Every structure is written in C-alpha cells, then in structure tokens.
Amino acid sequence: MITKELLDPESIVIVGASNDTSKPGGKVLYNILKNNFAGKIFGVNPKEREVQGVPCFANCNLIPEVSLAIIAIPANQVEAVMRILAYEKKCKAFILFSAGFSETGAEGKCLEKRCVKIVNDVGGTLVGPNCIGVITGTYKGVFAGPIPAYDPKGCDCVSASGATMVYILEMAIPRGLKFRDIFSVGNSAQVGVEDVLQYWDETFDEKRSSKIKLLYMEQITDPKRFLKHARSLVNKGCRIAAIKSGNTEAGSRAVSSHTGALAGSNSAVSALFRKAGIIRCYSRVELVYVAAIFTIPPLKGDRIAVITHAGGPGVMLTDILVKNGMKVPQLQGDKAAMLLSKLYPGSTVSNPIDFLATGTAEQLGEILDAVENDFEEIDAAVVVFGTTGMWSVDDVYMLLHEKMRTSRKPIFPILPSAIQAAEEVSHFQSMGHVNFTDEVSFGYVLSRVNKMKPPFPEAVLPKIQQAKAIEIIDQSPKGYLQPGQVFELLQSAGIATVAQAVVTSKEEALLSANELGFPLVLKVSGILHKSDSGGVVPGITSFQLLETVFEKLIAMPGANGVIMQQQLTGSEIYVGAKAEDKFGHQVLCGLGGIFIEVFKDISSGLAPVGRDEAISMIRHLRSYPLIKGIRGKEGVNEELIVDAILKISALLQMVPEITEMDINPFIGNSTSLIAVDARICIS
Amino acid sequence: MITKELLDPESIVIVGASNDTSKPGGKVLYNILKNNFAGKIFGVNPKEREVQGVPCFANCNLIPEVSLAIIAIPANQVEAVMRILAYEKKCKAFILFSAGFSETGAEGKCLEKRCVKIVNDVGGTLVGPNCIGVITGTYKGVFAGPIPAYDPKGCDCVSASGATMVYILEMAIPRGLKFRDIFSVGNSAQVGVEDVLQYWDETFDEKRSSKIKLLYMEQITDPKRFLKHARSLVNKGCRIAAIKSGNTEAGSRAVSSHTGALAGSNSAVSALFRKAGIIRCYSRVELVYVAAIFTIPPLKGDRIAVITHAGGPGVMLTDILVKNGMKVPQLQGDKAAMLLSKLYPGSTVSNPIDFLATGTAEQLGEILDAVENDFEEIDAAVVVFGTTGMWSVDDVYMLLHEKMRTSRKPIFPILPSAIQAAEEVSHFQSMGHVNFTDEVSFGYVLSRVNKMKPPFPEAVLPKIQQAKAIEIIDQSPKGYLQPGQVFELLQSAGIATVAQAVVTSKEEALLSANELGFPLVLKVSGILHKSDSGGVVPGITSFQLLETVFEKLIAMPGANGVIMQQQLTGSEIYVGAKAEDKFGHQVLCGLGGIFIEVFKDISSGLAPVGRDEAISMIRHLRSYPLIKGIRGKEGVNEELIVDAILKISALLQMVPEITEMDINPFIGNSTSLIAVDARICIS
C-alpha cells in the first residue's frame, strides 16, 4: 500500500544522517536538500547535533513526529528504530536502504517479515529494504544518482534493482528522457512492482498522470494483480515497457542469489506481457529507446519517410524498417518532382529523401512540410541529421523542434553527432526533445513498438459440463489420468474425440471394428513413447490385417490392451496447457510433430485465453500458412482451433487441478478437428 | 592502386584551400596543419596568397611539383586541374572531395571516367570523388570530423559513405576505440573497398600492421577480389567486421540514389562474408561493439564469468549470453567457498559473481585472480562495474586496467556510469582500453564474434565429365533445358537421377512399366505447377491403375506426354543454384517442400563450395535434426548431400552459363540420394 506520506511527506527523518556524502545517509540528505524539499527535515545520528545544516538527534526517541523515515543504518539496528518510529512517532512511510535482509537467508527473511509487520500495524508503507529509494514530485529520496530532472509528464519508473535503475538513468538522461516518479523497491518486502502499478492505476488522472511507465523486474510475485493493473493502465492510454530478467537457468540463479527471488517461466512472462499490452524489453538500451519513442505521438500507420543528409544511415535505417515489416514507400509524381526542385541538384526524394551533406534547415523545412501536407502515403518521418563539424547545425535542430511541435505526423529525430554537435543536440534536448543516436537500434525498436497490440479483452469462455468435469477429477488419483478419463474430460469441455475402443482380446477387436468401421489405427496401450517403439499402426483396412496387428501389439512387453481408433485424415494440431505456479495456466498451440519438436514453433497464451488471444496465438505460428492450406493442400479450419483453445481454457478454469495437458495430436481439416491422443496430469 | 604518394606524401596541395574552416578546403587544411604534417603543404585559390599561414597559389600552373592533391572545388573545374597536376606537376595521388560526378547521372559518370583516365595515365591513385578523404599515419586529409587519435594498432577503416564514417567515429571515439588508416572512398571511381583490402593484404606485416579492419559498403563491385584479400587477411590473423547495407528493395533504392551503386543479393553477401570469415554487422553500434571486442584477445572458449557489483545488469548479461549459446557455468566447491570468504557477507560467487554495491577494488582483484588461477571451467571474465555516485571508482578501474594487462584470460569491461563516472571512465580509456556501456548489446555481440568461424578453405571439387556437360549446353538454346537434357547434365556431374521414361502412348507406358518396375509415379509433361493441378500421381502399383492414370494425365490440356518414374522412398532434399551477377553462383540447400516454402529454411554458400562449407550449410539448417533422423524416422545420409553440393559446384564451375538450377527434390535416405525432378536454365 502506497501512502500519501510516502508520496508527499510533511516531514522526513534520515536515520543514519551524515555529513559524509560518500555514505547513503549523507548522500540522500544532500539530494533532498539540494532539490528543495519544502517540508521539515532532520537527521538521527548519535555522533552529530547537526548534519548538512539540519538538526540531528542522537536517537529516534528524541525526534518529533514524522511522516517519512529514510533508514540508512546496519540491518541489525533497523527493527528497533522502526518500532519507535511507527508506534511512537506516527511515521507512516519507510524507505529502507539497508541490505542484509531476505537476500541473505532465513534469518534475514524473518527480520524482514518483522519489519513489514510493524509497518502494516500502523497502515504504513515500506519501500525496500536493499533499495536506492524513491523520487517523487516533492523530494529526491535516493542516495544513488544521477538525479534526473523532474517532469510531470516524464517517465514513471519502478525497479526491483537499484543499480539497474541507476544505470538506466545513466543511459536515459543523455538521450533527453525526462522522469517523474521513481520507485526502487529492492527486496519488495511490502511494496512490490504490483503495488506501484496498482497505485498508478487507481490514481490515474487523464490530465495529470504520466502516460509512460517503465518497469525492471526479476520476478513477478502476483501475476494476476500485475495483469489487472497493467492492462487497466494501457486501456487508459498509458504505454508500458518492461524488462523481466532472469529468463535462463543461469540468469535465474543470479536472481535468486541477489534478491532471493525465484524467476517464473520465460514464455509465461511474455504471454502475460502480450495479454497486458506491455512491450517486453531485454536491455537497458532497448528500454530507453522504447521510452523515448513513447514520448513522441504514436504512429497511425507503418509508412515512414526516411529523411537524411547522409546516405549510409538512411540506407541502414530503411533496411531495418523494411526487414521488420514497416514500409518506406517510394515517392513519385508531381509532388515529388516539386519537392525535388526545391533541393540542391543531386538530391533524391524517392524515399529515402537524401538532401545531401550541404542540405540546409530551409530545405529540411520544405521536406517536412511536403511529408505533412503532400504525401498521403506517409505516416511519419524520421530525420537523420548530424554534422561534418564544419558549421553549427543549431538552425536545423531549431527547425526540427518547430516542425515536431506543429506537425500532425510524428517526427523522430536521429542526431548522430555525439561529439561534434554535442552543444546543438543539448540545446535541442533542452527544449524537451529526446534524441536517438543509432538509426538501426531506433528502427528496430520503432517496428517493435508499432507491432504492439492493445491488451487482449477479458476472455469470454464457452460453457462446459462443469459437474461432469469435476466428477471425473474427483474420482481420479493424482498424476496422469487413464486414457478413458482423458477423453471423458475433454468431452465434458465439448471437445470432439476420435471414436475408439480399448480391447484386450481378438474377439473384442473384431466386434469393435464392426462398430468403428475401417480404416483403423491400432495403438498399444500401457507403453510410453509408443510411436517410437512401433506401437502405433495406421492403415488397418481389413479384418485379416486387424488380427495380425492386434496380435503383434498385444504381445509387446508392457502392453495391457490395444486402442482401436477410426483413422482420420488431415493435419496434426497440438494444443496443450501447463500450470505455471502463480501465473495460472499457460495455453500452448502449434502444428503437431516435427513443427514443435524440431522448429519449436509453439504459440502461448495465458489462461483464460479469449477469442482474440487465441486467434493471435494461431496467426503467430510460423507454420500458420500450413493451417491456412498451401499449394492446394487442405488446411485446418482455424475457427475450430480457436474453439478448442477456448474450451480448454474454460476447462482449466473449472479444473485448476490440471498441471499438464497435451492434446497431441488433434487431426484437423477444413470441417473437423478431433482429438486423437491426449495426456492430462492432475495434482 | 594505392600509391606511396597517397599514404605518405612528401608534399600536399589543397586545391580550393581557404581560410574559412566552414569550407572543406579550409577545414582539411586546418586538420592537416593541426595534426603536424611533416612535409610541404600549400594551397591553390585565385583569391589568396596565403591561407592559414601556408603559401597559396592563384592556379595549379603556378605550383611546384607535388605528391598529393586534395581537391575541394566544384565538379566542373576538377578535370582541368587534374590534367595539370597529373601531367605537369608529377602528382601521383588525388583525393577528390567534390560531389557532382557519377552519382548525378550520365554526364557526371563521363566526367568521372575522364578523371580516372588522367590518374591511370600517370599510374596514380584517385580517392573519391564524393568522399571526406583519407587519414594515414602522416596526415589527416579529411574535412569532416571528429578526428580520432592515431594508433598504429588501431582500427583500419574503409567506408563507401563519408557521413557514415563520420558517424561511426562519433560513436566509436567515446567508447575508447583507436584508429589507424581511414579511407573514405566515396564513389569508388578508381579506388574501391577491394583496392583498400588488397593494399592491406599485400602490405600486411605481422608486427606493424593493425589486425582490425572495419568496412562500410553499399555495393561489392568485385566479390572475387574482395573474397581473395579478405580471406587472406583473416588467415593472416586479422579480424574483419563489415556493414553491407542496401539489403532490401527500398534500401537499395536509396543506395542507387546516392552513390549510383547497385546492391547485390543480400544472401550472396552473407555467403561471401562467411566464406571470407568476416563478421557481418547491420548497424554502427554493432560495428563499434565488434571492433571493441576485437581489441581484446580472442576467447579460447565460451565459458564466461559474469562479475558485477550490481545485480540486474549481471542477470541481463547472463540471460543474453546463455540465450545465444555461451555458457555461464555455476561455480562450486572449495575454491568458490574460498573466494566467497574474501567478499562481504551477502555476496555470491555461484556465477554471476555478485560482490555487492559496497564491493571494493581489492575484492575485484581477488575475484579476477580466482578466475585466472582457480577456475579452469572459465575462459573469460566480464566485469560490470559502475557507481552510485557516492565515491570515486578510479581505484576499481585501475585494478581492472592492471588485471587486463596481466591476465591470460580475456577480461571485458562494462562501465555503465556514463554520467557519474565520466572522469574515471575517461581515465580508464586513456590507458588504452575500450569500454562497453550496455551489457546486453555487448553479450549479444560477444556471442556473435565467438560463433564466427575461420574462412572456408579453398574448395577441392570432384572431377566431372566436362566434355559431356559442355556438349549438352552447346546443343541447347538459351532458357530452360528440356527434362531429358537436365538429367543428362546432372549425370555428367555424377549426380544420380531417378530411372524414368517419357511416354506418349498407352503401349509405351506399359512397356516402360515392365522395365522400370512398380511402384511408379506418373507426372504429366508440358504443364507448369503440375503438382498443384493434380498432374502428379504416386502409388501406381498395377498395370490397370497405370492405364487409368495415364489416360487421365494425357488428356489434361497442354499435356505433351507422361513421365514415368520409379517411386522412391525417403525425404525430399532441395539443392539449387542461382547466378548472382559478379558474385558467381550462390548454391542453396534445404529440406524440400514446406520447409523451404513456409519456413524459408535454406542455407546458402558461394560457389565454388568446398567440403567444409557444404557441411556448414547443411548443419545450419533449422531442419538439420530431420536430416539426421529423429524419433526413429530414417534420416538422409549427410555425406551424400555434401557430395551432391560439391558435384553441383563443380558443374557450375564448368558450365557458368547456368543461371538457375533447382533440383527439387532429391529423394534421400540413409543409403541413397537421387534427383527426381529438376530445372536448369542457361543463358
């Protein structure tokens, strides 16, 4: 819970305040004082009566009542101090810099829990421990810099790693990014990323809130709450970019080592982000580029004018945009000719628009006006403009500033001369602009942002036979269900299963064949990996063949029967699900067989998967053309796959005991999709 | 041809010299003077008798003999000046800044050719036109900055775009990269990228030459010469990174617009780079990161210790390394425990090694010593170390400097505090080190560099029946060969083709069936896309079926016969070739059918493809597991595919008239690989 006292404290005490700014308690005081905190501020330090010009008390018993405490003392002294502050000094907000809590083991974990209890007792907020602090509109409660300029429309940030927040700022500030609230939540003992999201969501104000949210996380403790508030924020017009690291085994080893967090499944995180409409980033530089793109009005289309006075960067930018699905349409006709006539000879306007090394601010103005007014086929402009170092490019950047202010179409500035145009770039940024330095990184990230879809709407799931499903589960022991029960459970969700019979004698087999009709597939029952061991025989078209094959299968070691199924024609489709701890279930789909095994061509969504998400899952498969059908070969009815995913989603909702489920395969064609083999495991 | 006069001129004349450093003729003079050129220097300018303190002549007739001319006057005056300089002043080297030549059209192209002729007449060198100039150990002949510090072991560069060279430097210098020779070749009228490579190759000196070469190109004019010298340089120990842009249609439109160059096929360029052992980059930032990695001794293995005082960056770095195939091995046992005991409580050494925000230089020393001496399972270390801004990290960076100097294992520094540790980073770099600022970009690029293979050795090709092949080609009109000739040509290269007969009557069909034996495949002849229209019927197992199918096929509109083939069992394999203008032939392979059509899973090599390259092609297919055989399903004999690629390579060498060739498919299994259908087009 984030209290008013944390956001806008009337008074602050620094416990561990110091004159030494190489200590956290000294540096945070320095930062707060330097940045004009308007409330009362004082320190606690047994050795000082005054620190950096503010009163200092020997211990917490001596201080007046206080709204916010920033604590920078060794872990073993923290609890006692917090008791006094919470219970006696009406303190309702705590920022705990100190390390030495849950990240160090069981003992630290207990200490951390006791501290949280103290804060909860008084309905307060605890940020940290093991964090660098908080920045809000009223104070800079951090000990680590750099301290960004405060901008009410700047990026709101929350980071589970203090150092990473610092290094994000080290990269973002030179790019011209502005910031608003920053929360370094450290061990997230009480306030975690979800709480900050909830606070942003619940206090969102169309006019006053920032619409850019940046997240760095190493775990998602409460994915459902995370989804709820992230999706709500995006639906309110916010744009969220987030890094979730610790995605590999070695990476998550690092995570658990340094914050005691356990990493979730990587594909579940991606599915969660897609569901919420969050752009997933994998590096600081990517996060900073995405954030910078967020500061510019969103694209309304994917058709870009690449404008440059330098050939190469324009070519590289065009390549990366086109490679990633954006368009750089050729410009032709009268209006293009008219524009060309206003540029120096040798210029080209076919897009990229290259107005040569000698190109002027005035010419750039003509180009941007033409993009704005004359070329309907263009949705946005990217301007790459640096300097040879021979003259100032300030006039060009002022022109760019003016056009960015007035143009309906977004204009993205790439100003590559970090050294030679440092002054002009700095002037340009001082007027509130960001700057992208590498055109290819920009182009890649722009295309990612442009591909981003809004959050999937709440899933509307089909009705299933709930009572029947629960009855089956209740009757089954934990572990893998029996084949018959698997099919019954699928049927309870309305999923078609192949007509089959399980037989143990030749006589039964012949009788069943009469009922099922030929052709048949025979499968040995009781043996894992039956395909590999020759336990699956398709193409049984006669009683004679049936007898021979039945005898062969039933004689296999471990066989406890033979499954006889109608042989269907079509393509193999895989649909599955997997319990992902707090994430709920991940639902998976793909073409069966080698497409999954060799090409790892699987889409995933997070249950409950609704119609839009199911369609998106199917269409994101690389093998989607095969589902549509290519070269006259019959495909698979997409609507039936969507239907199956929704039904499975509904089943998972009713029967959360399912830990693992593989329908592998369905056999599908243009008119039917029938489950032929399936495994379900319950817990 | 690159002359001594270009590299180390005794005297330089600036034609168009000026006191105004906002003009190229002023700025280049300023740069040369400022950087202490040791020879004679003077200007030509009708309005001045002295420029920037050096003598200035009214025209070229008045000047003494001179080694190198740097020309910065309008294009229409250039030819006359060059005549005087070349024919009368013994000038042997020309750097031509002026634009307005081949990039502007036919007239400019003629002018450019005449200028080249003048230079060739005197056995001289011409760099440009439309370039920013040349930097060597003796002078800085460029008008555009920034000017990098000269280092004999720094990066050698050649760029076909002056602006791109400038912007590469803008990015590289702040990273600490040092440079040696820089050639901006502009329109490459005489000296192109290939000439610079040839010069570097032919003058390579193990002790004195730089071993890092960076290239920016928009076309490869002479791929064979390019390959020859690039491969030779890499074999001599050089490491080459190159950008070739203009890879998309829109991108190559930009290329042709601004330098008049035509872009080659993108996959042919990649194949060429692989053959030469060049790392292909797609952005300036990637090129700079690769170059910076090149300054550090090469990895001898892929096992990395990630060392940091900041959790998050270590986690993200670990994730990206592991995701891209590197290893971050867990460290355990006595030596790990010993190391841990030397660090502050709460540190972890399991790798990532996190020695906390409070970690000291001394502790970093202990860690790096342990990596060097105690952990055999580690090949290199990456150190991520920034600052909170509370104290100087100079001692840490000095320690890092010392360890990088003495360690046998490579150490890569990632110093993310661009703002707060600017001074310390600058001090660190001043001792000759590079710095990587983003750990993920670094990790990605390191893994790419580590995956890089040495150049493929010269291809040794099998002998083929050359006379027969040439006879077939001589007898055939241009265009697609007749099916019979296609098979004959393949047979001349020793490629097995399926037994088949082309028949036009039922009687012939029955006779041929007797010879070929069942099962058969029948294919209609004379119709394109025969599969799609039902013109291919497999599974003919009886004379009766044969008659029925024959009649159906021969009755299809456009049918001129029926091809009868033995029906083979196995997987479809595709091998093909495509003439790529100056690149020669690109050889392609993949699994047939949907793997090519839907998954675009094709490998390519540049003819002549030798054994190593063929193996690499096959193993880089995503579908390679299917070739090896999975889940008990028979694969395809890899050696037979290699053999087929080599034979096709040999055929292409003998018959360069082949413009296109598709053997689609071969049917392959563990013992045979037989061409079943093929098309060959000749010109």
Automatic annotation (TrEMBL), chains A, B:
UniProt keyword annotation of Lipoprotein present: no
Gene3D superfamilies referenced in this protein's UniProt entry, alphabetically: ATP-grasp fold, A domain, ATP-grasp fold, B domain, NAD(P)-binding Rossmann-like Domain, Succinyl-CoA synthetase domains
GO molecular function: ATP binding; metal ion binding; transferase activity
InterPro entries named in the record: ATP-grasp, ATP_grasp_subdomain_1, CoA-bd, NAD(P)-bd_dom_sf, Succ_CoA_lig_flav_dom, Succinyl-CoA_synth-like
Every ATP-grasp domain range: 487-536
SUPFAM superfamilies associated with the record: Glutathione synthetase ATP-binding domain-like (SSF56059), NAD(P)-binding Rossmann-fold domains (SSF51735), Succinyl-CoA synthetase domains (SSF52210)
PROSITE patterns, sorted: ATP_GRASP
Superkingdom of the source species: Bacteria
Keywords, ordered alphabetically: ATP-binding, Nucleotide-binding, Transferase
PANTHER family listed in its UniProt record: COA BINDING DOMAIN CONTAINING PROTEIN, PEPTIDYL-LYSINE N-ACETYLTRANSFERASE PATZ
The name this protein goes by in its record: Acetyltransferase
UniProt source species: Flavisolibacter ginsengisoli DSM 18119
Organismal lineage: Bacteria, Pseudomonadati, Bacteroidota, Chitinophagia, Chitinophagales
